[in-house]
Amino acid sequence: MHVEMPIVSGLRVVRSAVHGYGVIAERRFEKGEILIHAEGFLYGEDEAFDDTYALVLPTDDLPGTYTGSGGKQIFYDLVDQSRWINHSCEPNSNVESAMDPETGRPVAWWVAARDIEAGEEIFYDYAFVGTAAEPCGCGAPTCRGLIVDPDPEELAQIPASLRTHLRIPLPDRARVRRAG
Ligand SMILES: C[S@@+](CC[C@H](N)C(=O)[O-])C[C@H]1O[C@@H](n2cnc3c(N)ncnc32)[C@H](O)[C@@H]1O
Ligand SMILES: [Zn+2]
Question: pTM of the prediction?
Answer without folding.
Answer: 0.90
